[in-house]
Design goal:
- By secondary structure, this protein is α/β, with parallel strands linked by helices.
- It has eleven helices and nine strands.
- It has two domains: 205 residues, Alpha-Beta Complex (Spore Coat Polysaccharide Biosynthesis Protein SpsA, Chain A); 105 residues, no CATH class.
- Strands 1, 2, 3, 4, 5, 6, 7, 8 and 9 form a nine-stranded mixed beta sheet that branches.
- Strand 6 and strand 7 form a beta hairpin.
- Helix 8 packs antiparallel against helix 9.
Length: 320
């Protein structure tokens, strides 16, 4: 029986692909399938994929027209047969014991979701990050409280395959992990934690995380879609506090910091849009119960304005 299906979307990553696939074929967990989805690559990725799929029987390779990361993931999900599903971006790599340790954790209490820590690999340094949790969660109430700190990346997790019965990644957008993760959480009943940095996340020039592009506004579009999803499924009233806090945190922190890579005029437009959207959806957010907890982050969120935005912009550009 296949324990874990690892889905690897591939698009023009011939420079990095071997390192990624080597880390997967050398996993200590043996009951594993690796599903490679070539999403219309135009480089020599297909040659590498064919080489590995011919050599390793537990690799299954597919090729499709380019549809983006979410499309490739959804394509892989439909073909996965494992108890659990994992995702690896094809320019990243994982530690050899990652899926064995995470699967063993999954089976401890039949967890729906398992998360591990990770490393960010920069050109001149490596940073270790936690998944923002150091203990398991067994109740819907605890998972609900964790929403305000949830790290939504798809790749440092194992998902019980049944979670995808009625959910897919939204296609055609950036920051699809955030959009998917916050739609998923209401259906998760338990979360297991493995506090080891098993995943290596490569930050490279030209990747989405370091490129300035108008699709940065998908942050706002995605979050407005999340609110609509909760309302449509009659979940909004229960999760309103967590949604309000998370909405403000993403628009005033994550979105603003990313938009600071623009020129000043574009940045100021982005700041204005963020403030307008928060005022439209959550005009009384400063009364949110999670903002009453004393921290520098909450102080910033509670008092965010154009002045704070100018400081962020100057800090982003001070070394130019």
């Amino acid at each position: 029986m296949i324990k874990v299906s690892v889905i690897v979307p591939v698009y023009n990553v011939e420079k990095y692909l071997r390192k990624c696939l080597d880390s997967l074929v050398n996993q200590t967990l043996k009951d594993i399938e690796i599903i490679i989805v070539n999403d219309g690559s135009k480089d020599h990725s297909d040659i590498i994929i064919e080489e590995y799929s011919n050599k390793y029987s537990h690799i299954t390779a597919f090729k499709k027209e380019n549809g983006g990361l979410s499309s490739a993931r959804n394509f892989g999900i439909e073909r996965a047969t494992g108890e659990y599903i994992a995702f690896v971006d094809s320019d990243d790599w994982v530690e050899s014991e990652m899926y064995e340790k995470m699967y063993l954790k999954a089976k401890e209490h039949d967890f729906d979701l398992i998360m591990c820590d990770f490393k960010e690999i920069h050109e001149n340094e490596t940073k270790v990050y936690t998944c923002h949790l150091d203990h398991d969660l067994f109740t819907k109430e605890d998972i609900q409280k964790h929403m305000i700190d949830y790290y939504p990346s798809a790749w440092n997790k194992l998902y019980k395959r049944s979670l995808f019965k009625n959910l897919q990644f939204k296609e055609g957008v950036w920051f699809e992990d955030v959009e998917f993760g916050y739609r998923l959480l209401p259906y998760v009943h338990s979360i297991g934690i493995v506090n080891n940095p098993f995943y290596n996340y490569l930050i490279r020039k030209g990747s989405i995380t370091s490129t300035v592009d108008p699709r940065i506004y998908h942050y706002i579009d995605n979050w407005n879609g999340i609110l609509d999803f909760y309302k449509f499924h009659h979940l909004y009233e229960r999760y309103e506090n967590e949604l309000e806090y998370s909405y403000v945190r993403y628009l005033y922190a994550t979105f603003i910091k990313a938009a600071a890579k623009y020129d000043r005029n574009e940045y100021e437009c982005a700041v204005k849009k963020a403030i307008d959207q928060v005022n439209q959806h959550f005009p009384n957010y400063k009364k949110n119960k999670y903002l009453s907890q004393k921290s520098l982050k909450n102080l910033y969120l509670k008092h965010f304005n154009h002045f704070f935005a100018k400081i962020i912009y100057m800090k982003e550009h001070e070394h130019e």
